From TrEMBL:
InterPro entries: OMP/PagP_B-barrel, OMPW. PANTHER family: OUTER MEMBRANE PROTEIN W, PTHR36920. One of its GO terms (biological process) is transmembrane transport. The keyword Isomerase does not apply. It comes from Myroides indicus. It comes from the Bacteria. This is Outer membrane protein.
Length: 234
């Protein structure tokens, strides 16, 4: 009886250990979601066509927090929604404001166009791969819709940015700290365009034959985003 009792205890412990190991393995395979919080450097590579006054656009760099959520369809294929917003000061370099009798300004000028906030929610389709137990690189490609808001006009009377669709790509890697928590390094390139209309009617000279001066521009922002952060699977 004693031997039978010990055998039953041993079998129970063995079965329990096997079940726990199997459950742990199953848990690892059933993490469908992960969330990351990153600090991101936003570096615009901007270019503009300002036909009426010439010059080039100047948009400053920024550092922002970024949040993303990833859903895994399979072990390798996932979709990531990236959320972040950034504020940028905007201006022109080398524009011509010597346009008599419309504007009596300098032949070469840097024009302060105030600031604007950008909100470009981005959806990426990703491919993930695992090297060893902790290193997990990935690549992704996707689309975004950039919303411009809270514009400040600077030297002009008013400024308007058109919301636009764009696209982007990314690559990066996760390094596991535990089964659920990891650190992340991420690089993204977004391709953002917008049509800008600057209302510079307040800069008209007293001899101007018109009473309204609107300056159109086509602007490419194309920011590079370099991020580092932490993540959690659930």
């Amino acid at each position: 009886m004693k031997r039978l009792f010990l055998s039953l205890i041993g079998a129970t412990l063995l079965f329990g250990s096997s079940a726990f190991a199997q459950e742990t393995t199953t848990n690892k395979e059933t993490y469908k979601w992960q969330m990351r919080l990153r600090g991101v450097g936003v570096i615009p590579h901007n270019k503009a066509d300002i036909s009426s006054i010439g010059g080039q656009i100047d948009v400053n760099n920024n550092f922002i927090p970024e949040l993303d959520f990833t859903y895994f369809f399979t072990e390798n294929l996932a979709a990531e929604l990236i959320l972040g917003t950034s504020k940028h000061t905007v201006g022109t370099i080398g524009s011509t404001l010597d346009l008599p009798p419309v504007v009596n300004g300098p032949a070469t000028a840097n024009v302060d166009l105030g600031s604007v906030w950008l909100l470009p929610p981005t959806l990426m389709i990703q491919y993930h791969h695992k090297f060893g137990d902790i290193f997990k690189p990935y690549v992704g490609i996707g689309a975004n819709y950039t919303i411009f808001y809270n514009e400040k006009s600077g030297a002009a009377q008013d400024i308007k940015y058109d919301n636009k669709f764009g696209w982007g790509y990314q690559f990066g890697f996760d390094i596991d700290l535990t089964e659920k928590f990891f650190i992340n390094v991420d690089f993204k390139k977004l391709f953002l365009k917008t049509d800008v209309t600057v209302d510079a009617s307040n800069l008209l000279s007293s001899e101007a034959p018109i009473n309204e001066l609107k300056i159109p521009a086509k602007v490419k922002l194309d920011p590079m985003l370099i991020g580092f952060g932490v993540g959690m699977r659930f």
